[in-house]
Amino acid sequence: xxxxxITAPGQTYKVYIGLTKASSSDRTVNVAVTSPTGAAxxxxxxxxxxxxxxxxxxVIDSIVVTAVYNAYVSGRKDTLNFAFTNADDGLVSLSxxxxxxxxxxxxxxxxxxxxxxxxxxxxHELFGTSAYGPYTTTISAVTPLTATTGKITVTNIWxxxxxxxxxxxxxxxxxxxxxxxxxxxxxxxxxGTINSAYAGSQVAVxxxxxxxxxxxxxxxxxxxKMQLGVxxxxxFGSLYTVTPGK
Length: 246
Hints:
The protein has 246 residues and is an all-beta fold.
């Protein structure tokens, strides 16, 4: 099995074909390709040849596969199944079949939520103009919600033993991916961890108007934005930004 990732036009993949033994005369191996995912020659890929002629005494040769770059820039993935048969006298190949997986460059609409489930020892934050870090946060759980949304759970935001905070990731528009905090007014921490004057009250979080966070499946990066508050009293006016880092 091979993996062919085309990240620029013109990139190719070479499939090697071998015979079990050399022949004293030229031998031809026919190459047939089928695709359970619907890839078609001329539309998604092309081959350098439909057969390979082994010169007398040779046992190794190859064909070249060229994927059509534009066919794969939006997340398409294909499987190509190769079958090799000797046209002349039935000599078998070293392997009479080969499977090739084809995909394009990383696509932001192709979710890899589990890639975010990680401990981030280089987390930095900014509360208004007050910066802090690095410290450690953990994305302890990821949950698919729909085909284009998912939920992550982040622990130790604020670096003061805060309980988990949930965020919704939305990649409905792959070019405009957003992260939105799930509003909560209890279960996070005592608000005295923000300011001793609020001891006994609960930390509250909600989205900061017009300031969603963002993320990238391709780079594995995520920026969390929210508005902090004290339950029953109100919210601080400063944007709170947390950037987990590995």
